[in-house]
Design brief:
Layout lengths: L6 E6 L6 H15 L3 E6 L15 E4 L9 H22 L3 E5 L1 H11 L6 E4 L11 H10 L5 E4 L2 H11 L4 E4 L21 E6 L8 H11 L6 E6 L5 H11 L5 E5 L4 H6 L3 E4 L8 H8 L4 E4 L3 H6 L7 E3 L3 H13 L1 H13 L6 H18 L1
Parallel strand pairs: 1-2, 1-4, 2-3, 4-5, 5-6, 6-7, 8-9, 8-11, 9-10, 11-12, 12-13
Length: 372
């Protein structure tokens, strides 16, 4: 079947911000540009979208994301969401559905169960560390074996998912891909007037921004010409700003908030830090490396050691505050180390660009459609 006749419906909770949301928006765009007829459905309203879509992508926002006040209300709302989702999927008439993120995967599989739609689900975090609570975990083990194929971002996560879906479901490992700016990178860090180490990500517990501030408070006085820049927003925003005041480092931290121009911030920085407690496959880390920045990441995920070869194209700190602080101190003190790591980092990211990654997605979609 030619690509122009193939209909793909992509499903996620929201496009309001986050790495998984950005990734599925990019996947929709690249599939659309390759001739697929794409519909992107979210539980959230389209009014909250932060990521641009190709004009040919049909955007459907269901606006059913309102919070529940009790377990009974949550169960009732999820039954309603499955029905609304099923109706929307049916209207899109897909040859294949692709769902991103754990809870959305469960709802998508429940919705597709009676539609005979082959469904690819993709885990975007680490299910070994991101526990959903016993009801959702039970639902995951019940519904995931009904998927046609599963996409993991690393081999260890794929091996774990195999214990859930069994041997009859195909599992593919496809890591995060990045889009690079059309105007080129033109990294100008050597001519900057200000030394900036940057964090880009959601301000939430698993990302470790509070740990980063603690680490920064112990080393900032040793590097008076450096500033920490925080790009992103999230539920910890107020808490983190109060923490800065308590640690007496408010004057050494710049708060950017949400930004849709990540590359501009990377061009204005000399180093990048990822302080997460766990990750799926962090796009911001890959983007920083592609921009030629020396990077530090905590040893929080299998993906970190896949992306970074310690001491060669970046530094991996142990998953604690002290090690993170030591790595930051070392990197900021050594300009030659920053230069060598940055050069190696930029050269190591070509395999994570969309031109090669989209081919793997298309091959998987083709196989799934042929199996239907």
């Amino acid at each position: 079947m030619p690509a122009t006749q193939r209909r793909i419906t992509l499903l996620i909770h929201s496009l309001a911000g986050g790495g998984a949301e950005r990734q599925i928006a990019s996947l929709s765009n690249h599939l659309s540009q390759r001739g697929f007829r794409c519909t992107l459905i979210t539980l959230d309203s389209a009014k909250s979208d932060r990521y641009p879509l190709d004009p040919d992508v049909n955007r459907v926002g269901l606006d059913v994301m309102k919070p529940s006040r009790s377990l009974f209300a949550a169960c009732s709302k999820n039954r309603m969401r499955i029905k609304v989702l099923r109706d929307a999927i049916k209207r899109s008439q897909p040859d294949c559905a692709i769902s991103f993120c754990d809870k959305m995967n469960i709802l998508a599989l429940a919705a597709c169960q009676t539609l005979s739609v082959p469904t690819i689900i993709s885990e975007r975090s680490d299910p070994r560390k991101q526990h959903l609570g016993w009801i959702w975990e039970a639902a995951r083990r019940w519904h995931y074996p009904n998927s046609t194929a599963v996409v993991a971002q690393t081999e260890p996560v794929a091996a774990y998912l195999r214990t859930i879906v069994g041997s009859n479901v195909s599992i593919e490992v496809i890591p995060t891909a990045i889009d690079i700016p059309s105007q080129g990178l033109d990294n100008r860090t050597d001519s900057l007037d200000r030394n900036t180490i940057i964090y880009i990500g959601r301000l939430s517990k698993e990302k470790g921004p509070d740990r980063l501030l603690q680490a920064w408070s112990t080393v900032a006085s040793k590097h008076p010409s450096w500033q920490l820049r925080i790009v992103g927003d999230g539920p910890m925003d107020s808490q983190l700003k109060n923490q800065c005041n308590d640690l007496s480092i408010a004057h050494r931290v710049d708060w950017v908030g949400w930004s849709d121009n990540i590359w501009s911030h990377l061009r204005q920085s000399r180093a990048f830090v990822l302080p997460s407690h766990y990750e799926g496959f962090p796009a911001a880390l890959v983007e920083a490396m592609h921009a030629g920045l020396p990077v530090i990441a905590t040893d929080c995920s299998d993906s970190i050691r896949e992306i970074i070869q310690h001491e060669q194209n970046g530094l991996i700190a142990s998953n604690n505050r002290e090690s993170l602080a030591n790595a930051i101190d070392r990197l900021l003190a050594d300009a030659s180390l920053r230069k060598s790591l940055g050069a190696s980092a930029s050269a190591s990211t070509s395999k994570y660009l969309w031109p090669s990654t989209i081919e793997r997605w298309i091959q998987l979609v083709d196989r799934v459609i042929k199996l239907a």
